[in-house]
Amino acid sequence: MKPIVAVLLLAFLSGCESGHVYRYEPKPALDAAGHTFEQGRRASLALFIGMPADDVRGILGNPDETSASTYGGDFGRPWPGVCWVYKWNQDWPQTPRKMLSIVFDATSRPLRVNNWEWSDF
CA 56, CA 50: separation in Å to the nearest integer? Predict the structure, then answer.
């Protein structure tokens, strides 16, 4: 009886030891257009003041969010603008989530880039 218990115990314990260590591999963060953060960062280097919105869409794709607001009020020269936001939600708690906000001058047709900035959110 004891040899059977020993064999069963050995079989049970050897089945629990796989020798493989599982690690959590984070998924790459993608924006709504399917770009990784690194692709978005590189594409943003091509932005310039006055760039048409269609050109921005061509290099970065469609934004994750859009909004309209009045800008420049603090300087006494308010102007209407449209903001496109691209977000990269990292799937890893220690990595900051990145956001690229691009503001277009809504008084021009086509819309043209007025400014942009990167930030964590």
Answer: 11
pLDDT band at 12 (very low <50, low <70, confident <90, very high): low
Q: Within a 13 Å sphere around the CA of 2, how many CA atoms are in the beta-carbon half?
A: 0
- Please give the pLDDT value at position 1: 55
Angle at Cα 8 formed by Cα 4 and Cα 9, nearest 5°? Answer: 115
Q: What is the pTM of this model?
A: 0.74
Domains of the chain: 26-120 (3.30.1450)
C-alpha 66 chain-centroid distance: 15
- pLDDT for 75 equals 86
HSE of 23 in the Cβ direction (CA atoms, 13 Å)? Answer: 3
